[in-house]
Amino acid sequence: MSGKNVTEVRLADLAGIAEAARILESGGLVAVPTETVYGLAARADSADAVAKIYAAKGRPDFNPLIVHVAGLAQAERYAQVLPEARALAQANWPGPLTMVLPRRADAGLATAVSAGLPTIALRAPAHPVMQALLERLDFPLAAPSANRSGFISPTTPAHVLASLDGRIAMVLDGGACPAGVESTIVAVRADGSVEELRPGPLQLGTRGGGESIEAPGQLASHYAPGKPVRLNAAAAAADEFLIGFGAVEGDITLSASGNLDEAASRLYAALHEAATAPQPRIAVAPVPDEGVGRAINDRLRRAAA
Ligand code: TXA
Ligand code: MG
């Protein structure tokens, strides 16, 4: 036990948010609720603070972070916001949309935040706790998902503790994240074209360029529950924990009624439960590849890889 630090879980009331702000101002790490998943936040303008994120997650240094801003005005300080990007922000921020944009030379943020790339990923989150936090800070927050690199993403404070307990100062408890899968990421090119780099809760009608490694975090194996995962299963084998959907019942279900939004909101909790179940293997029922189902299948494929 020696040398193990304590991670405090605090309710995201006014006092909790004030304490989180104090820790962030002094360069510490706080896990914060967003509408998608819990993020592991640090001040994006400090190289030391950003380095702590990579260390706590065990994240490879070539995998850049998303910088969270209060809104469009703050985004303009760090990136060249092209007209197409401005229109997307006006229509979808605050919300689960991350835009990869040309990084401004005078951004004044840690180089490591975008892993030395000429671009930067920006998102204005809709969660009221994150908004309250960003409004009282005079810097933006770098925040990847609050899990050890490669493991299952967190949608509750307990999920955060499952992999980061003792590695971070505090978890700000805002309850379960409503959307449940990470933001949709798009790159907005200099010519105004928009390419989807990661499917998410928001459907923009732009299909991605396939398995592009351009969002370097989109590695084949990710979200791994530490057991073999079999997809498109109609029934469980004797040694499998089955995650159901619709007519496939399972040990637990993503959505008995076949509702994809509900399935997305339960996806990571189901994988966390499957990871700790006695069965040595996991099977997952088929999920339709439409709407947010594309994001669910994307994450399931990586969990199975
Ligand atoms: O919903 C979300 O996006 C959550 C919450 C906390 O906001 N965050 C999240 O962060 O999912 P993370 O680090 O788990 O995923 C960020 C993704 C990675 O795939 C990374 O490679 C990509 O964004 N990314 C970041 N900056 C990029 C850039 N400049 N160019 C391309 N991809 C970038
Ligand atoms: Mg992640």
UniProtKB/TrEMBL annotation:
<dbReference type="InterPro" id="IPR017945">
    <property type="entry name" value="DHBP_synth_RibB-like_a/b_dom"/>
</dbReference>
<dbReference type="Pfam" id="PF01300">
    <property type="entry name" value="Sua5_yciO_yrdC"/>
</dbReference>
<feature type="domain" description="YrdC-like">
    <location>
        <begin position="14"/>
        <end position="202"/>
    </location>
</feature>
<dbReference type="GO" id="GO:0005524">
    <property type="term" value="F:ATP binding"/>
</dbReference>
<feature type="binding site">
    <location>
        <position position="36"/>
    </location>
    <ligand>
        <name>L-threonine</name>
    </ligand>
</feature>
<dbReference type="InterPro" id="IPR038385">
    <property type="entry name" value="Sua5/YwlC_C"/>
</dbReference>
<dbReference type="InterPro" id="IPR006070">
    <property type="entry name" value="Sua5-like_dom"/>
</dbReference>
<feature type="binding site">
    <location>
        <position position="145"/>
    </location>
    <ligand>
        <name>ATP</name>
    </ligand>
</feature>
<keyword id="KW-0963">Cytoplasm</keyword>
<dbReference type="GO" id="GO:0000049">
    <property type="term" value="F:tRNA binding"/>
</dbReference>
<dbReference type="InterPro" id="IPR010923">
    <property type="entry name" value="T(6)A37_SUA5"/>
</dbReference>
<dbReference type="InterPro" id="IPR005145">
    <property type="entry name" value="Sua5_C"/>
</dbReference>
<feature type="binding site">
    <location>
        <position position="119"/>
    </location>
    <ligand>
        <name>ATP</name>
    </ligand>
</feature>
<feature type="binding site">
    <location>
        <position position="143"/>
    </location>
    <ligand>
        <name>L-threonine</name>
    </ligand>
</feature>
<dbReference type="GO" id="GO:0005737">
    <property type="term" value="C:cytoplasm"/>
</dbReference>
<feature type="binding site">
    <location>
        <position position="123"/>
    </location>
    <ligand>
        <name>L-threonine</name>
    </ligand>
</feature>
<keyword id="KW-0808">Transferase</keyword>
<keyword id="KW-0548">Nucleotidyltransferase</keyword>
<protein>
    <recommendedName>
        <fullName>Threonylcarbamoyl-AMP synthase</fullName>
        <ecNumber>2.7.7.87</ecNumber>
    </recommendedName>
</protein>
<keyword id="KW-0547">Nucleotide-binding</keyword>
<feature type="binding site">
    <location>
        <position position="153"/>
    </location>
    <ligand>
        <name>ATP</name>
    </ligand>
</feature>
<dbReference type="GO" id="GO:0008033">
    <property type="term" value="P:tRNA processing"/>
</dbReference>
<dbReference type="GO" id="GO:0003725">
    <property type="term" value="F:double-stranded RNA binding"/>
</dbReference>
<feature type="binding site">
    <location>
        <position position="183"/>
    </location>
    <ligand>
        <name>L-threonine</name>
    </ligand>
</feature>
<keyword id="KW-0819">tRNA processing</keyword>
<comment type="similarity">
    <text>Belongs to the SUA5 family.</text>
</comment>
<feature type="binding site">
    <location>
        <position position="198"/>
    </location>
    <ligand>
        <name>ATP</name>
    </ligand>
</feature>
<feature type="binding site">
    <location>
        <position position="68"/>
    </location>
    <ligand>
        <name>L-threonine</name>
    </ligand>
</feature>
<feature type="binding site">
    <location>
        <position position="59"/>
    </location>
    <ligand>
        <name>ATP</name>
    </ligand>
</feature>
<dbReference type="Pfam" id="PF03481">
    <property type="entry name" value="Sua5_C"/>
</dbReference>
<feature type="binding site">
    <location>
        <position position="63"/>
    </location>
    <ligand>
        <name>ATP</name>
    </ligand>
</feature>
<comment type="function">
    <text>Required for the formation of a threonylcarbamoyl group on adenosine at position 37 (t(6)A37) in tRNAs that read codons beginning with adenine.</text>
</comment>
<dbReference type="GO" id="GO:0006450">
    <property type="term" value="P:regulation of translational fidelity"/>
</dbReference>
<feature type="binding site">
    <location>
        <position position="223"/>
    </location>
    <ligand>
        <name>ATP</name>
    </ligand>
</feature>
<dbReference type="GO" id="GO:0061710">
    <property type="term" value="F:L-threonylcarbamoyladenylate synthase"/>
</dbReference>
<keyword id="KW-0067">ATP-binding</keyword>
<dbReference type="InterPro" id="IPR050156">
    <property type="entry name" value="TC-AMP_synthase_SUA5"/>
</dbReference>
